[in-house]
TrEMBL record:
Origin superkingdom: Bacteria
Pfam families xrefs: Polyketide_cyc2
Annotated protein name in UniProt: SRPBCC family protein
Annotated InterPro entries: Polyketide_cyclase/dehydratase, START-like_dom_sf
Species the sequence originates in: Fulvimonas yonginensis
Length: 141
């Protein structure tokens, strides 16, 4: 199934990068690829929590957190008939004051390959924009 990735190195402590990355409700304030984010279950990021995400050029989706390693990684999934979208967000320390952020996105299921052909370029662009926006936001303070 189609999978897309973007990564960047951010000159900042890992805890600050993680704090911003997992504050999903605040994404529309600094992330150009998200126009609205709503926590449906309240509380901090946790396995099982759901978020309604609206993005330009895409239908709104309900994302459910399926894996969480606090301070390091979270994965979430959104389902539609015939397809599941999977997004992974990773933060890995690279020395004392730097981290490597890796964002990935995949289409899975019967329609995954077809949607990958239709939306693959947009997925690549959004991942790159997200990695760069995170870097700029954190490094700007």
């Amino acid at each position: 199934m189609p999978r897309y990735e973007a990564s960047t190195t951010i000159e900042a402590p890992a805890d600050g990068v993680w704090r911003l990355l997992c504050s999903v409700d605040a994404w529309p304030q600094w992330l150009p690829t998200v126009s609205r984010a709503q926590a449906l279950d309240g509380g901090p990021l946790a396995v099982g929590r759901r978020y309604r995400i609206e993005q330009p050029r895409l239908r709104p989706a309900i994302w459910t957190v399926t894996a969480l390693e606090s301070g390091r990684r979270f994965e979430w999934r959104a389902r539609s008939p015939g397809m599941t979208m999977v997004a992974d967000h990773r933060v890995a320390p690279e020395g004392h004051q730097a981290v490597r952020v890796q964002l990935s996105f995949a289409f899975r299921g019967l329609l995954g390959s077809v949607l990958g052909m239709v939306y693959g370029d947009l997925a690549r662009r959004y991942l790159q924009q997200e990695a760069q926006a995170l870097k700029q936001r954190v490094e700007a303070g």
